[in-house]
């Protein structure tokens, strides 16, 4: 009997094989891409939940408690923990992950941390790959946990079915801005550390903002043209005004509100399925993943060509820095060849 | 006498013309690109300072006080305030900007806020453009203020000469991770709100982390290949271990420590010039800007071609979502044409 391929072993749920595939993807080995292609037709089964919010909001603890909740319900869980704060160490900082050690020996739980090490396709591309692998492994639920409030989160939100935005009472002035900006991404709000002063007020503020949104509707993006790229700010392009994002108060460290949070997520899932919006969201997920892939392929191809024809990128950059070369002309020239065929 | 062109008016420092160019860039008008090209040879004079840190760290107040400092020294200042938290409103939230109203009537100060509205090239590309325009206007100093701690900040850090990382005492557990991750980006640290408990400890923690870094050195990115793209996590690729990032305690609201912060920035600038590292950093800036440009050009070109040949992106995404089309094959095919010429 032939030895099963890496793809077959991943599809059977083998943890070591999945971990190896993820490492190979990190190292951008060509075989890893081949395996990713082989598993692709078997993906699209996992339910993907995003968990995002500012640093210090307690997302890791919430994730920890959600894992326990889903495990108790007999579901297998994959976690993608993104730590974009470590560009140079080539990996995520493990401190927070220690909290998840309860699950370290549970074969129904697979945890993968991502840093922002040098990938042409960016962090969101790597996240999309890891979600695919966990999906192929047969995980029922995949939770994508992100730190920060930037464009990465908007991109990552395009990859999930239900986006949970985590906030806490009283983080300061800027938090108002975050809440306002992140409104359109959120399918569910968690006000964590709800045992602190101001939790009710934070929840009320969110509610008010959601009501304003209902009245005026989202402001459409101007000047965007036909195409939307990942990170173009149009997360969940199929806006679903029939859904009122619930606001759940939680205290992750004690487990308070976790069942309610899981119920709110489940309620959103049921809404997507009942309204048919799940199909539009699947298309949006596919679109975002495809654009991330395309962006990476194009850039790496163009840079190879540039190296062959024009010289090393650093030499080109040196000429640009001395204002001897025109970056616009160079970029136009490289891009025009694609268009002219 | 011929009417001066928009480029000429921007180069003469005309505020209305610069504001119009920025709006045209936002709207991606082709003329705006032409103007950007025309001003390009006259750029490269401004000194660009990045100011980044978590929400609530008081970056806007610090920026405000730095403006006053530089104005008092007779320097003109441009500010690019990036608010990536507002993907849908198509612009930045203005709350924080109100604090800067002292400077609203000062012709030596030009403030521009950026949201994350739908740009193929992403937020960092828009930032690069605005920095170029302010540079062309003749601003002596350009300050780029970013909210958040994600990949955007790593990209934006590649565009600046001196990166100031702002932190505050006691923001919670996750802050440790941020500090550790952002170490390699920072040329100067500001511990703001230093009148709060724990400021000395935060400064000491930072110092300890910097010392560890000196001992073990940065961990290089594995598997990256030859090329680095914007956002590949290799901000300031020319790492400068001859520079010890100073740590300055500030209280932005009272102005305490602002002169020291400005002195630390000036000291880094002098170091770059004395050591010759300024040239390497200029090359790194040019490289990052060029790659952002190329990424945008390639993606928009490829998507036009896809639309012509394969059908609308949403239809393609629908086929991918139903697993009828292979996104890897589609992306490879589009990218291969560029390479095969």
Task: Produce the secondary structure layout.
Two copies of one chain form a homodimer.
Chain A: H1 6-11, H2 15-26, H3 30-39, E1 47-53, H4 59-72, E2 77-82, E3 109-114, H5 122-137, E4 141-147, H6 151-157, E5 162-167, H7 173-182, E6 188-191, H8 199-216, E7 247-249, H9 258-275, H10 277-309, H11 313-321, H12 327-339
- The proportion of residues forming helix of chain A, as a percent range, comes to 40-55%
**Count of strand segments of chain A:** 7
Q: How large a portion of the residues of chain A is in β-strands, by DSSP E? A: 5-15%
Largest sheet of chain A: 7 strands, parallel
State the assembly state of the protein chains: homodimer
Instruction: Measure the end-to-end span of chain A.
Output: 47 Å
- Low-pLDDT runs of 5+ residues of chain A are 85-99, 173-177, 217-238
What are the secondary-structure elements of chain A, in order, as H or E?
A: HHHEHEEHEHEHEHEHHHH
Instruction: Determine Rg of chain A (CA atoms, Å).
Output: 21 Å
Mean pLDDT of chain A: 78
Strand order of the largest sheet of chain A: 3-2-4-1-5-6-7
Overall outline of chain A: globular
Largest interface: A-B, 118 and 118 residues
Structural class of the helices, strands and pairings of chain A? alpha/beta
The number of helical runs of chain A is 12
């Amino acid at each position: 009997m032939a030895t099963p391929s890496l793809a077959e072993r991943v599809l059977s749920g083998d943890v070591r094989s999945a971990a190896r595939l993820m490492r190979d993807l990190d190292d951008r080995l060509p075989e890893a891409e081949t395996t990713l292609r082989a598993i692709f037709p078997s993906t699209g089964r996992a339910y993907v939940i995003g968990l995002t919010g500012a640093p210090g909001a307690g997302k890791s603890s919430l994730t920890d408690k959600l894992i326990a909740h889903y495990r108790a319900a007999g579901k297998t869980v994959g976690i993608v923990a993104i730590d974009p704060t470590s560009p140079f160490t080539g990996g995520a900082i493990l401190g927070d992950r220690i909290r998840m050690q309860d699950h370290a020996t549970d074969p129904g739980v697979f945890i993968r941390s991502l840093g922002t090490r040098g990938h042409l396709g960016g962090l969101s591309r790597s996240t999309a790959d890891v979600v695919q692998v966990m999906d192929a492994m047969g995980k029922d639920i995949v939770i994508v946990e992100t730190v920060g409030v930037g464009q990465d989160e908007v991109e990552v939100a395009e990859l999930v079915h239900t986006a949970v935005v985590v906030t806490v009472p009283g983080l300061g002035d800027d938090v108002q801005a975050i809440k306002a900006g992140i409104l359109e991404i959120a399918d569910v709000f968690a006000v964590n550390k709800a045992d602190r002063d101001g939790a009710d007020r934070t929840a009320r503020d969110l509610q008010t903002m959601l009501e304003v949104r209902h009245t005026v509707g989202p402001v459409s993006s101007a000047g965007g043209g036909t195409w939307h790229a990942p990170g173009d700010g149009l997360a969940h392009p199929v806006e679903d005004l029939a859904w009122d994002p619930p606001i759940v108060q939680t205290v992750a460290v004690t487990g308070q509100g976790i069942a309610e949070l899981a119920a709110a997520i489940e309620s959103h899932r049921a809404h997507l399925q009942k309204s048919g919006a799940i199909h539009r969201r699947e298309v949006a997920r596919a679109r975002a993943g495809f654009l991330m892939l395309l962006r990476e392929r194009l850039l790496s191809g163009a840079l190879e060509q540039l190296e062959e024809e024009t010289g090393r990128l650093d030499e080109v950059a040196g000429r640009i820095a001395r204002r001897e070369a025109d970056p616009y002309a160079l970029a136009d020239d490289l891009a025009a060849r694609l268009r002219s065929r």
